[in-house]
Amino acid sequence: MKQFPEGFLWGGATAANQCEGAYLADGKGLSTVDVIPAGKDRFPVMLGELKMLSCDEAHQYPSHEAIDFYHHYKEDIALFAEMGFKTFRMSISWTRIFPNGDDPTPNEAGLKFYDDVFDECLKYGIEPLVTITHFDVPIHLVETLGSWRSREMIVHYERLCEVLFERYKNKVTYWLTFNEINMLLHLPFMGAGLLFEEGDDVLSIKYQAAHHQLMASALATKIAKRINPNFKIGCMLAAGVTYANTCAPEDAFKAMTKERESYFFIDVQSRGEYPNYALKMMENEGIHVQMEPEDAQILKENTVDFISFSYYASRLTSADPKVNATTEGNVFASLKNPYLKASEWGWQIDPLGLRTTLNMLYDRYQKPLFIVENGLGAVDMPDENGYVEDDYRIDYLRAHVQAMRDAIALDGVDLMGYTPWGCIDLVSASTGEMKKRYGFIYVDKDNEGNGTLKRSKKKSFEWYKNVINSNGTTL
User: Fold this and answer.
1) CA end-to-end distance (rounded Å), the chain
2) From 20, 127, 180, 373, active-site residue
3) Where in the sequence is the signal peptide annotated (predicted)?
4) Active site residue 373
5) Over pLDDT 90: what percentage of the chain?
6) What domains sit in the chain, N to C, each tagged with a CATH number?
7) Which of 117, 247, 310, 433 shows a CA-CA span of 20 to 30 A to 130?
């Protein structure tokens, strides 16, 4: 079997709000993710159903300490280097740079922190892959503008990009504009800082916010190419093939429409225009989106260089409303697929679905692809030294790497790299838990915030090290 291409970017992925901690350190401002609690109120807040724009003593907020990457980054990056990482996907905390989002000048302490992180990566030959916005909006902009429902957000995002691109133009090559941009439709506060009042036209607000983010992404690409033509700008979606429950044509059509909900965003970012199906859907659903005369040209002239995505599970859907036995998987509801096993959190494990997803995306866009999230969330049981025999994680990842290899070698997919999610244990975005672990590195901390934060290698650490060292031939 042909090996992965030379220069394939093996690595791992994190997000600022799930690992950095130090949530108000060195001038950082309050962000949307900082006010999303653990526990029963988490989903109502993420959905925008429960308004929470500050913190209180009645809730626990996982982002406040997380795994304290802010003070452990040197130790953590050294462990990534020991595994042989070629790239490290991370995100910028918007409120470390502009604490309120509309500050007249950026916060130098925040800029220096990322300088130090990038320098540490480059010391080991690790290429930073930077997400500009990973579920992160300054609370001040939510309170004053209504977040991405306002077109003024584009201006503040452009300023953020201008500062980041200019500051790090010689340290970072690969950028992602928004993490899982399609999540705006499913978790509107988590994804875009959106809140709703009684009587709001919720769908129109969501799609208006989506248009503003798509414009912001295009303008970020324009700024990037002006500052450094060698920058590579990517978009990012939460992906996963959707199967029809039966061979009934109605089920097949339903599966196609469910996938289009996510592809719509990438169609715009990759092709530079709204697809007809999206325009017709908005017309038929009475969704009103205000677009300015110049928007179409900006979108057309500033498309992305590559397409990145997360893949955890496939989904199954039916056109029959009576068929409603759903799993707990990620945010996307899915019928239970009898042909697949599921994780402890109900996410259906489907390596072949990854190969299918790779083919569908490459056939659709003919642009390089990058898998920037993939992994198995599981309850790990460490010994007294923090060592975890996580063969279940190795089995999961091995099957998915084999699927990637098949997509490259047998199908001709152009795949740039692979950064498994949570290469070090961190806070789960969906549940706010620590016990839902993904990492090759165990972090001593529990759901209640107790623990020493000591780092230790799991069995999967050495396995992944061998995968990278062999460029995917030793699995």
Assistant:
1) 12
2) 373
3) none
4) yes
5) 93
6) 9-469 (3.20.20.80)
7) 433
Plot region of 453 (φ>0 → left; ψ -120 to 50 → alpha; else → beta): left
Distance, in Å, from the CA atom of 472 to the CA atom of 475, rounded to the nearest integer, reads: 7
What whole-number distance in Å separates Cα of residue 107 and Cα of residue 27? 7
Question: 133: which 2 tokens?
Answer: 């916005």
Closest by CA to 23, choosing from 97, 77, 72, 95, is 95
What mean pLDDT do residues 49-75 have? 96
Is residue 221 predicted with pLDDT exceeding 50? Answer: yes
C-alpha closest to that of 85 among 9, 176, 173, 172: 9
Q: Which residue has the tokens 């089995």?
A: 395
pLDDT at 322 over 90: no
pLDDT of the residue at 325 = 52
Cα separation, 84 vs 126, whole angstroms: 9
The CA-based dihedral angle spanning residues 225, 229, 230, 234, taken in that order and rounded to the nearest 10 degrees: 20
Give helix 249-271 / helix 351-365 axis angle, nearest 10°: 60
Dihedral (Cα; 139, 145, 149, 151), 10-degree rounding = -120
- Measured N-to-C along each axis, helices 108-123 and 69-83 cross at an angle, to the nearest 10 degrees, of 20
Answer whether residue 470 shows pLDDT above 70.
yes
Of the pLDDT bands very low, low, confident and very high (cuts 50, 70, 90), residue 332 is low
Residue 420, both tokens: 């498994």
Global pTM exceeds 0.90: yes
Query: What are the tokens at 242?
Result: 């959707």
b/e per residue, 32-61, with b = 16+ CB within 10 A?
A: bbbbbbbeebbbebbbbeeebeebeeebeb
